[in-house]
Amino acid sequence: MISHPSTPNVTTRDPLPVAAVGRVVWITGLSGAGKSTLGRVVARRLREAGCPALILDGDEVRLAVADPAIAHDRASRLTNAMRICRFARLVAHQGFTVIVPTMSLFKEVFAWNRAHLPGYLEVWVKVPFEVLQARDARGLYSRAARGEARHVAGIDLPFDEPESPHVILQNDGAEAALEPLSDEILSRLTIPCQSH
After folding, report:
1. What are 112-167's pLDDT values in tens digits?
2. 35 near 101, Cβ under 8 Å?
């Protein structure tokens, strides 16, 4: 017969550490506004400061999930946006600062985020449309103008501009201008970082 050591009394065990609830930085704007690049700058600076930060890029989530039912029409975009919202909440509740660069320009999304996301900071990256068309890194606007692309926000797809974002950033300059823009975001993150 094998004897086993007695089970320790649960009340005498050291309690397991509970992760503090994190926060969500929601960076929204039209295609070409600089959301993803700005998100990477903010995440890098948070990590350098010892804050656990994770990026949930809207385009990357769409590719990772690879849902064949999700297209680029308004209904599909809203479904995908709500999926990103829930992913952000899941990760934030594990103690991370979640940076979410995504278009997701729907009033339903902004309302849900404010009601459900911890430490929510809404950032609207505003760029004149002529600047977006000039940048057009993915050729999206030029294809839409030629009739080769449909459901393009700002062309043939209506979108909801945030009504009361916490931060409005004018990003009509070069990529080097993103560092000072990130200062504005970091200065608004009032919840202290949690070390893991």
Report:
1. 999 999 999 999 999 888 888 777 666 666 676 676 666 666 666 778 899 999 99
2. yes
CA 38 – CA 44 distance, rounded (Å): 10
Domain ranges of the chain: 21-188
Catalytic residues: 104
Gap between the Cα atoms of 131 and 172, Å rounded: 7
CA distances from 60 to 14, 63, 66, 75 (A): 40, 5, 10, 19
Give, in words, the CATH class of 21-188.
Answer: alpha beta
Please enumerate in sequence order all residues whose Cβ is within 8 A of that of 66, keeping only pairs 6 or more positions apart, or say none: none
Long-range contacts of 176-179 (CB under 8 A, 24+ apart): 178/34, 178/37, 178/38, 178/41, 179/41
